[in-house]
C-alpha cells in the first residue's frame, strides 16, 4: 500500500485510541521508522507530511541523510549506539531514544560542542534478556548521575513491549513506564524534565497511545519493511 493510505489508517486508529483514553491527537507524535526501506520510500513519508524519521543504526541514518536533504526532517536515532560511533552521529540527530549507560552519556556529552541533545532513557520494563535498557531499580541513580552532562537533556523514557498477543502484558509494560516517567517528572529536575514517553510500534501503538505515549515509532505498518 501507499504510505498515504497507511497513514490514514494509522491516524484513524490513533484518533480512536485518544478518544478512548481522553487524550488529544495533538499530544501524539508519529515517527516513521525507515530502517528497512529505501530512501525513496522514506521520501514518500516526507511527502505525506511525516517529518519525524527514525533509523536504528548509524549507517542507515547517514545514508538517508545524504539523499533526503530536507530541512523539515527531524531525525531520531532509536537503536543501541556504540560509543565508538558517537562521533559520527553527533550534530546529525535531534532525538536519541536509547540512552542506557553512563559511558555512552559521557561520550555524547564530550562530542557535543554546543547545544543540547534531547534524550530518552531506555528502560527494560519487561525484564527480557534480549532487550536493552536499565532496570527499574537502576533508573533513579542513573538519572542523578546525568547531572554532570550539560549537553544532554532527558525529555522522557523509552521502552519496547514484549512481542506477544497478550494485550494485558503489553499494557502493563506501557503503564509501568508511564508511572516511572511520572515519578521522575515530579522530581522537577532541570536537566530531566521527563515529560515524554517513547513507546509503541506497529503491532501495539494503539495500546501505547491509550497508556500515554507521546511518541510512537512505526515502521512496517506505515512505510513497510522492504
UniProtKB/TrEMBL annotation:
Nucleus recorded as keyword: no
Cofactor: pyridoxal 5'-phosphate
A Pfam family this chain is assigned to: Ala_racemase_N
GO molecular function: pyridoxal phosphate binding
Domain of life: Bacteria
SUPFAM superfamilies: PLP-binding barrel
InterPro entries (UniProt xref): Ala_racemase_N (IPR001608), PLP-binding_barrel (IPR029066), PyrdxlP_homeostasis (IPR011078)
Keywords assigned: Pyridoxal phosphate
Modified residues (N6-(pyridoxal phosphate)lysine): 35
Ranges for domain Alanine racemase N-terminal: 30-224
Family: Belongs to the pyridoxal phosphate-binding protein YggS/PROSC family.
Known function: Pyridoxal 5'-phosphate (PLP)-binding protein, which is involved in PLP homeostasis.
Name under which the protein is recorded: Pyridoxal phosphate homeostasis protein
Species whose genome carries this gene: Sporolactobacillus terrae
Amino acid at each position: 500500500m501507499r504510505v498515504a493510505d497507511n497513514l490514514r489508517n494509522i491516524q484513524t486508529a490513533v484518533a480512536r485510541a485518544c478518544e478512548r483514553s481522553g487524550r488529544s491527537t495533538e499530544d501524539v507524535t508519529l515517527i516513521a521508522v525507515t530502517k528497512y526501506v529505501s530512501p525513496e520510500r522514506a521520501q514518500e513519508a516526507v511527502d505525506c507530511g511525516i517529518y519525524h524519521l527514525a533509523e536504528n543504526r548509524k549507517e542507515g541514518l547517514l545514508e538517508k541523510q545524504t539523499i533526503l536533504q530536507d530541512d523539515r526532517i527531524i531525525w531520531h536515532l532509536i537503536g543501541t549506539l556504540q560509543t565508538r560511533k558517537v562521533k559520527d552521529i553527533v550534530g546529525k540527530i535531534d532525538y536519541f531514544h536509547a540512552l542506557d549507560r553512563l559511558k555512552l552519556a559521557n561520550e555524547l556529552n564530550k562530542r557535543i560542542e554546543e547545544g543540547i541533545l534531547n534524550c530518552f532513557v531506555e528502560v527494560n520494563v519487561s525484564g527480557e534478556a534480549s532487550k536493552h535498557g536499565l532496570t527499574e531499580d537502576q533508573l533513579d541513580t542513573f538519572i542523578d548521575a546525568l547531572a554532570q552532562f550539560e549537553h544532554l537533556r532527558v525529555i522522557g523514557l523509552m521502552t519496547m513491549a514484549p512481542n506477544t498477543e497478550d494485550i494485558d502484558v503489553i499494557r502493563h509494560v506501557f503503564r509501568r513506564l508511564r508511572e516511572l516517567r511520572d515519578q521522575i517528572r515530579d522530581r522537577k529536575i532541570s536537566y530531566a524534565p521527563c515529560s515524554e514517553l517513547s513507546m509503541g510500534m506497529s503491532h501495539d501503538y494503539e495500546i501505547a497511545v491509550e497508556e500515554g505515549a507521546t511518541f510512537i515509532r512505526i515502521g512496517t505498518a506505515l512505510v513497510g519493511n522492504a
